[in-house]
């Protein structure tokens, strides 16, 4: 039981560190360069078009959410989940087991 708790805590810590590093990179790119901004996509939550774009995803600096580009080819705006929301769904499904 203790080992299982430690493994779960370590997973949560790793996820926290990953999110913190992503947020740090987000602000660094946003504050340093206008070249990091683009108008190709828009945030499905606030319709912001000034986004920080990565290869497969983008961050909205207003909503502080990350979205996957491929979702825009498949879903309507009101059906698109942020990466953070997808993680919550997966965690909820894993907790049911």
Describe this structure in words.
- This protein has three helices and four strands; from the N terminus they run H-E-E-E-E-H-H.
- It has 97 residues and is α+β, with helices and mostly antiparallel strands.
- It has one domain (2-95).
- The chain has a four-stranded antiparallel beta sheet with strand order 1-2-3-4, with helices on one face.
- The model has no long low-confidence stretch (mean pLDDT 78).
Q: What's the number of structural domains?
A: 1
What is the β-strand count?
4
Query: What strand line-up does the widest sheet have?
Result: 1-2-3-4
What structural category characterises the helix and strand content? alpha+beta
The string of secondary-structure elements, in order, is: HEEEEHH
Shape: globular
Please tell me how large the radius of gyration is: 16 Å
Task: Give the averaged pLDDT, no decimals.
Answer: 78
Biggest sheet record: 4 strands, antiparallel
Uncertain segments are: none
